[in-house]
Amino acid sequence: MAFPKEENHHFYKWFDTTPVSEKYLLVVVKFLNDEGFVVTAFFVSKIRRKDKVLVYGEEDTHSL
Fold first, then answer.
1. Which domain holds residue 23?
2. How confident is residue 10, by pLDDT bands cut at 50, 70 and 90?
């Protein structure tokens, strides 16, 4: 039995203004059989995962 290809990706976008302070919006997307859906989304202070990451915004991506 072959299992379908399943991958999770983290997408980040930098926001200068949030209700608390400057933060990244993290959106976790699961891809299954070439279709993606959002698993969750929330604000974080820093990028923690280094693989399967795509960053949007004006932050310094060299520090990843």
1. 6-63
2. confident
From CA 27, how far away is CA 21, in angstroms rounded? 18
Q: Which residues of 19-50 are buried (b: 16+ CB within 10 A; e: fewer)?
A: eeeebbbbbebeeeeeeeeeeeeeeeeebeee
Determine, yes or no, domain membership for 16: yes
pTM for the model: 0.71
Half-sphere exposure for 39 (CA within 13 Å, toward CB): 12
pLDDT, tens digit, for every residue of 40-63? 999 999 888 666 677 776 555 445
The structural domain count of the chain equals: 1
Kindly state whether residue 1 falls inside one of the protein's structural domains: no
